[in-house]
Amino acid sequence: MAASKPPSALEKEQIFGMAEKEMEYRVELFNKLTQTCFSKCVENRYKESELNMGENSCIDRCVSKYWQVNNLVGQLLGNNQGPM
Amino acid sequence: MAASKPPSALEKEQIFGMAEKEMEYRVELFNKLTQTCFSKCVENRYKESELNMGENSCIDRCVSKYWQVNNLVGQLLGNNQGPM
Amino acid sequence: MAASKPPSALEKEQIFGMAEKEMEYRVELFNKLTQTCFSKCVENRYKESELNMGENSCIDRCVSKYWQVNNLVGQLLGNNQGPM
Amino acid sequence: MDKSMLADLDSLPEEDKVRMSTMIDQLQIRDSLRMYNSLVERCFTDCVDTFRRKTLDKQEETCVRRCAEKFLKHSMRVGMRFAELNQGAATPD
Amino acid sequence: MDKSMLADLDSLPEEDKVRMSTMIDQLQIRDSLRMYNSLVERCFTDCVDTFRRKTLDKQEETCVRRCAEKFLKHSMRVGMRFAELNQGAATPD
Amino acid sequence: MDKSMLADLDSLPEEDKVRMSTMIDQLQIRDSLRMYNSLVERCFTDCVDTFRRKTLDKQEETCVRRCAEKFLKHSMRVGMRFAELNQGAATPD
Where is each Tim10-like domain found (chains A, B, C) (predicted)? Predict the structure, then answer.
């Protein structure tokens, strides 16, 4: 592949554009996951500034389950590992 | 119009920029409408994977009313058919 | 500073990019503040189209407190006046 | 996009039309990725509420499948209605 | 935007200043379209709850008008307070 | 980013790699500013509910500090788990 002829200007734009969209997608996935798991796992009275053991294990499981939902929806939409 | 002199580089940027903003606006309108009508019309226990008759007619009316609200707000802001 | 040598093309891109991000940040801060204070201060039955005195003073205080929270969080993250 | 703008576009040379269609493609890709993320967030929020295990149980998985299917059908229906209204807005009526 | 950045901008040639002001214009257009979409979503969510007919009834329409007017007045007030705070932040206090 | 795309990137000349890494930096800056805005919004919404005075009282300030610290710790933990899952997805397993 590295030996093939260099991409044209338009192809380059498309490669950059796709890489940018892909990164935006991952950032948004991470942000939504972070917000959602915070709402589900962290008590919002903020009686202390540390995460307690229950919160920490809830967060780990929440991330794991969110990831599975992401993959499951990706399969339903016709690909194997999420949208890309 | 097609016979007028070609736009300058800056004018081109502005045409492209406006077209892009206009498209982003329509996409965002569609997404907000879709999310809002899903919340208003679809029962969120997901007992089946089909939309039933009641949900379908609710969706149609919801889209129609959302469209009217969009136009009404556009009129209040001083134009006739939404912001553009 | 104005007498220093002109920035290179790459430096220019970075200056423009940073200015753009900074503006996007301020716009988003303003929008979130506006939405949040509307939810906190304005009664959502809309019995009249004017803001009453109670709502107006609530809005002023809400903006002031939101600003303080913004600065407080900025300090916690290690700078003095918000993220920039 | 209103007509005067499209008229301007017609007067652009071929390379600009290519650029415009690339822009439209890119916006559509971004849009569908955002919709995907929103769907995942909504179905997760509505279907997953217990965190005693790190894998989805059968009930949660069924709920997510139905949620995603319903959302897609909903989204297609909204798309059709939205297109009808967009066309209607352009005619005198 | 902090001052050192503005100093850098001053040293840019004329064409870059034009580019910068075009960028600012574009961001403001995008911003006002987003605000518009948020306003529509909020007033729809707060005012429309029944879907037995496909047109707004009188009560819903009145509610939407008031909501939009209130939101605009609110938004202008927030804008003034926000500007005051932004200026205050630049002075020693 | 899948591998075929990365292969394409390898074949790009040096200036394009610089451009790519500038793009990544810019997205990360935008991302952290957005996260910051979301954190402020959430801690304000959860901690501030009375508007009889225009300054935060002691209790609100304590609440905001704890909220922000918790959110940052949470965010770091999620980041680690997320990275593990991303790596795991690339291995057979």
Answer: 17-77
